[in-house]
Design a protein that fits this description.
The complex is a heterodimer of chains A (239) and B (413).
Chain A: E1 2-11, E2 18-28, E3 33-37, H1 44-51, E4 59-64, E5 67-68, H2 74-84, E6 85-88, H3 100-109, H4 117-127, H5 143-155, E7 161-165, H6 173-190, E8 193-197, E9 209-214, E10 217-220, H7 227-232
Parallel strand pairs in A: 3-8, 3-9, 6-7, 7-8
Antiparallel strand pairs in A: 1-2, 1-4, 4-5, 9-10
Chain B: H1 2-17, H2 20-60, E1 63-66, H3 77-85, E2 90-105, E3 118-127, H4 129-132, E4 142-145, E5 155-159, H5 160-163, E6 184-188, E7 194-203, E8 213-217, H6 218-225, H7 227-230, E9 236-241, H8 247-255, E10 262-265, H9 271-309, H10 311-319, H11 324-360, E11 363-365, E12 368-370, H12 376-402, H13 406-411
Parallel strand pairs in B: 3-8, 5-7
Antiparallel strand pairs in B: 1-9, 1-10, 2-3, 2-6, 2-9, 4-7, 5-8, 6-7, 11-12
Helix pairs in contact in B: 1-11, 2-9, 2-11, 2-12, 9-12, 11-12
Classes of the chains: A alpha/beta (239), B alpha+beta (413).
């Protein structure tokens, strides 16, 4: 589904240049639930932004279902984000002027072919457990509920891949658990491909695979990693 | 169409749930800018209207009939007057017999014939007061004494700039230096005839040219100039019509009557005022241009701050795949909404506050009382100007945010 080849990202120029990604090569299969982990500054958020087409790399290639998405125009990338990708942000990202229902159906409203956007939004909100909160505004619901609404919004156009950037970082333990279980359920029941950045060690149990990053490089991509041996080698201590 | 629907939806929700104070501030700025765009040209237009009105009411009426170029006088005046009165829309017709005179006040006190004393040369117009009141408003501007009557022979009325005194604007040596009603003045006409008159009235028409005129009855002036020669003759015939502005049509009607004379609209006489009006238009355009730029900058700042506060929201919209065009159109719709509300409120302010104020308390200028002259063209220009300013002020901030990367819009780095 996703093939990343030699992905690089450099901020600044000359002696001030910071190499955030130094040549990432990863593959995510369809239906996988993958976590990208690493300590602060390892490049995990940068990688997710680039995979989600929110930012452009300095070099490398990203294939999503054999299409090199980096060669498309900004307009095409916007369309790709709308139709093929879903994105859940670290902080609450709902629009305060729209109700929960309106926030969720907004991306579908932009697609002419989606006629039953309201019905679909209600279904999505029911799936994430917010069927009773349709007419509430974001400031009238809890942080966990906002994040679940953001997940419903990300799923409204039935994306091929759902990206989540530390989706539980702003949540209390109970809300975080609800969100992660929701991801797991979406992955298991609907076969939704999910790529999630997290720094919570306990999140590992929800995912199929962890991609460890250290200093802009992939350190390990196996679920059977040995934390002790990684630590002995001076490896990614979780932040 | 789908894009417009989404843009309208976002704009509607943004306005509905946005900051009420920001909305009120933006609309207030727009309203006042709009009122200002109309107010300045309306004052200048009011001045021009007053100038024009004064010329019509005190000097020329609407239409002036002069003798042909090779003639000194119009003949068969009574017949012409009767013909003109038949035309629908005519309010009054008045024949003027024009002359001039050397006018002296307190001439008895002069030390010698070479002493100028209190004297000067002015135009003297012979009128039939009964006809004249239907054509000019001089009778309404009597500030001392009373107006002429048809049978008056030894009476004269003087413009304030002839009589002099505290109310006159001219330097005292250019006037009779303070003639009062009841005083005697002596007129020496070009044919050498000398007459003494009792000053019956002094008028202040607030029209400089009119205030330098002197009126006696036609009967009196005819007797001075020669009763046999000037009977049924006039130097000019002034015609007052119901609706100022219909002169063109009216002149065409007059031309069909076969009058032996030159028929002109008052506008052809108002050359000097026309120049002033043109200058006012230039000044009004300049002030409006500056006002529009200031309004656009103020709107830009207010909308820019508003957009800046929604920078993260714009980033999120783009991140979830909303096209930049939709975001831009949404903000453009909001800016136009502010402008339209500003126009509506601005118009209400003008219509229910500023205009009635100027009607009740007109500006008291030397040329007369000036109220607002709100022209439809000024309103149209203000509407178009404000809409353009709103488009500029709404587009530039959102375009500057859109140019930033999505990451920078959302997280600011």
């Amino acid at each position: 589904m996703i093939k990343v080849r030699n992905l690089q990202k450099v901020y600044g120029q000359g002696s001030n240049a910071t190499h955030a990604l130094k040549g990432i090569n990863i593959t995510v299969k369809s239906g996988e639930f993958v976590a990208i982990m690493g300590r602060s500054g390892s490049g995990k958020s940068t990688l997710l932004h680039i995979l989600g087409l929110l930012d452009m790399p300095t070099g490398g290639e990203i294939y999503i279902e054999d299409t090199n998405v980096l060669k498309s125009s900004e307009r095409e990338r916007a369309r790709f984000r709308l139709e093929e990708l879903g994105y859940v942000f670290q902080e609450y990202s709902l629009l305060g002027e729209l109700t929960i229902l309106e926030n969720v159906y907004l991306p579908a409203l932009c697609l002419a072919q989606v006629k039953d956007y309201k019905k679909r939004a209600v279904e999505m909100l029911t799936i994430v457990g917010l069927g009773e909160r349709l007419t509430h505004y974001p400031n009238e619901v809890s942080g966990g509920e906002q994040q679940r609404a953001a997940i419903a919004r990300a799923l409204i156009n039935k994306p091929k891949i759902l990206f989540a950037d530390e989706p539980t970082a702003s949540l209390d333990a109970t809300s975080a658990k609800i969100v992660l279980e929701l991801f797991k359920r979406l992955n298991k029941d609907l076969g939704q491909t999910i790529v999630m950045v997290t720094h919570e060690p306990e999140d590992e149990k929800y995912v199929d695979r962890v991609i460890w990053l250290k200093d802009g490089l992939v350190w390990e991509t196996s679920p059977q990693y040995d934390k002790i041996s990684l630590a002995l080698e001076g490896a990614p201590l979780l932040s | 169409m789908g894009n417009l629907k989404v843009a309208l939806f976002l704009a509607y929700k943004s306005i509905l749930k946005g900051n009420r104070w920001a909305l009120a501030l933006i609309i207030m700025v727009m309203s006042l800018s709009f009122a200002n765009l109309i107010l300045t040209p309306s004052i200048l237009s009011g001045v021009a209207n007053t100038l024009n009105k004064q010329q019509v009411n005190t000097l020329f009426a609407n239409v002036v009939i002069d003798p042909e170029e090779d003639e000194y006088y119009l003949d068969h005046v009574e017949q012409i007057e009767n013909k003109i009165k038949q035309i629908p829309g005519v309010i009054g017709v008045s024949a003027h017999l024009n002359s001039s005179a050397f006018i002296e006040y307190q001439w008895q006190d002069k030390g010698s014939p070479a002493d100028k004393g209190k004297s000067g040369n002015w135009s003297v117009i012979g009128i039939d007061p009964n006809q004249e009141v239907n054509v000019t408003t001089i009778h309404e501007h009597i500030i001392q004494g009373s107006y002429l009557e048809a049978d008056d022979r030894d009476a004269i009325i003087l413009g304030i700039e002839v009589a002099g005194g505290d109310s006159a604007q001219s330097s005292s040596f250019l006037t009779l230096e303070g003639v009062q009603v009841g005083d005697k003045v002596r007129l020496t006409y070009p044919n050498g005839v000398q007459r003494e008159y009792r000053v019956k009235g002094i008028f202040h028409a607030r029209e400089t040219q009119a205030d330098r005129l002197v009126f006696v009855t036609t009967k009196e002036l005819t007797s001075v100039l020669g009763r046999t020669i000037f009977a049924d003759r006039a130097s000019q015939i002034l015609v007052k019509i119901e609706q100022t502005g219909d002169e063109r049509w009216f002149i065409e009607e007059l031309e069909t009557l076969g009058i032996n004379g030159k028929i002109r609209s008052w506008r052809e006489y108002g050359g000097a005022a026309g120049g002033i009006v043109s200058s006012f238009n230039v000044i009004a355009s300049l002030i409006n241009g500056i006002g529009l730029v200031v309004a656009a900058i103020v709107m830009f700042i207010v909308i820019y701050i508003n957009v800046l506060n929604r920078k993260r929201q714009i980033g999120i919209l783009r991140a979830i795949g909303i096209k930049t065009n939709i975001v831009i159109i949404s903000y453009l719709i909001q800016a136009l909404f502010y402008a339209v509300l500003g126009i509506i409120f601005g118009e209400l302010i003008m219509h229910f506050a500023i205009e009635p104020y100027f009607t009740n308390y007109p500006l008291d200028l030397p040329l007369g009382l000036v109220s607002l002259g709100i022209e439809p063209s000024a309103i149209l220009k203000a509407v178009l100007g404000l809409l353009l300013a709103a488009i500029f002020a709404g587009l530039i901030p959102v375009l500057s945010i859109i140019r930033q990367s999505i990451i920078k819009s959302i997280w600011g780095n």
